[in-house]
Amino acid sequence: MSSKRKFAVIGNPIDHSLSPKIHKLFAKELGQDITYEAIKVEKEVFESRVNRLFEEGYEGLNVTLPLKELAFDYADTLSEDSKACGSVNTLWKDGSKVFADTTDGRGLVRDLTEKGIDLKDKEIIILGAGGSARAIIASLLRQDPARITIGNRTRSKAEALANQFSSPTNQIKVVDLSQDLNFVPDLIVNSTSAGVLKENVEFPKNLFSKQAQVYDLSYSEFHTPFMELAMQSGAEICYDGIGMLIHQAALSFEIWTGQTPSINFDKKDLL
User: Fold this and answer.
1) CA-CA distance, 79 to 75, in Å (whole number)?
2) Which phi and psi (to 5°) does residue 253 adopt?
3) Going by C-beta distance under 8 Å and a sequence separation of 6 or more, which residues neighbour residue 72?
4) Is 21 tagged catalytic?
5) Are 216 and 223 in contact (CB under 8 A)?
6) Is the N-terminal amide bond of 13 cis, ω within 30° of 0?
7) CATH number of the domain at 105-240, please?
8) CATH number of 5-102+245-269
9) Maximum Cα–Cα distance across the chain
C-alpha cells in the first residue's frame, strides 16, 4: 500500500489550476512524499464527492470556484477568517471532523509584505465587491490601513460588503466607479475580472497615479490587461496575483503538513 499522503484541489473548471505544480515544488523542497491532483467537482454533487474523497484517503483539499461557499457550509469547524468572509479554500479532516480555513487574504498580505508594501496608515481601494474582495478584506484590515474604499459597478453590492466589515474604528467607504476620487490611493487592488473577460469596465479618471502601487489578483505570463491599463494611465509599480497564489498555497501546505515552504521560486517556474 502506498505511503504517499494524498491532497487535491477541487473546482470547475480545474484544468488550468497551478496548484498541483506549486504543491509538488513545496513537497520536493521539504522532502514530503505526497500526491496532489486537480479534480473536477460539479456544484450539484459537492457533498457526496467530497465525502468520497475523504473516504478514499485524501487528507486535505484546496477549494476553488465555484465551490468555496459550499465548502463553507460543509465544514464542521471554521476559522475566524472563514467566518468573516463566508467561504473557504482549504479543507482537512481531523478524526471525524472537517476543518476549514481561507488562506487567500493572509496570502495576499504575505506577498505584499514580501514586496515591501507596508499597509499601515495607507489608503487602499479595492475594485470589485465579489467573493475575491470579500476573501481579502479582513486580512487587510488587520494591517491597520488609514482606510479601505470599495468601488464596484453595482453600488449596493459594495455597500453590503462595506457594512459587513466596517467597525466603529474602521469605517469602509464606497465610491462610484463613474466619479473621480476625492483622495489619492496608496494601493489599488483589482478583484474584478476586468480585462480577463474583455469587458469594458469604467474606472475613475484619477484612479491611477505615480504614488499608487497596483495589485491585480489575476495573473498572467506577462502583464495582465489591468496592469497594462494601470501603466498606460501613469502607475509605475504593478504586480499580478501569482505571489498571492503561491503564498496562499504555502499556508494550506503548512496547515496540512506542519512544514513551511520557503517560496523560493517564481512565476517562470509555473507558467
Assistant:
1) 10
2) -60, -40
3) 78, 82, 86, 87, 88, 100
4) no
5) no
6) yes
7) 3.40.50.720
8) 3.40.50.10860
9) 64
pLDDT at 271 over 90: no
Q: What percent of the chain has pLDDT over 90?
A: 86
Angle formed at CA 115 by CA 139 and CA 203, multiple of 5 degrees: 70
Cα–Cα dist 127/176, whole Å: 10
pLDDT of 152-174, one tens digit each?
Answer: 989 999 999 999 999 888 899 99
pTM for this entry = 0.94
User: What are the b/e assignments for 183-221, b being 16+ CB within 10 Å?
Assistant: eebbbbbbbbbbbeeeeebebbeebbbeebbbbbbbbbe
Amino acid sitting at position 95: G
Pull the grid cell for residue 102.
Answer: 481561507
- In angstroms and rounded to an integer, the radius of gyration of the C-alpha atoms of the chain is 19
> Which residue in the list 28, 40, 68, 173 is annotated as catalytic?
68
Instruction: Count CB atoms within 10 A of the CB of residue 128.
Output: 24
Give the C-alpha separation, 67 to 214, whole Å. 28
Report the DSSP beta bridge partners of residue 127: 151, 190
Residue whose cell numbers read 513551511: 260
Please state, in angstroms and rounded to a whole number, the distance separating the CA atoms of residues 168 and 188.
24
Tell me if residue 137 falls in helix, strand or coil.
helix
Q: What are the extents of the domains in the chain? A: 5-102+245-269, 105-240
How far apart are alpha carbons 238 and 12 in whole angstroms? 29
Residues forming a β-bridge with 92 = 60, 99
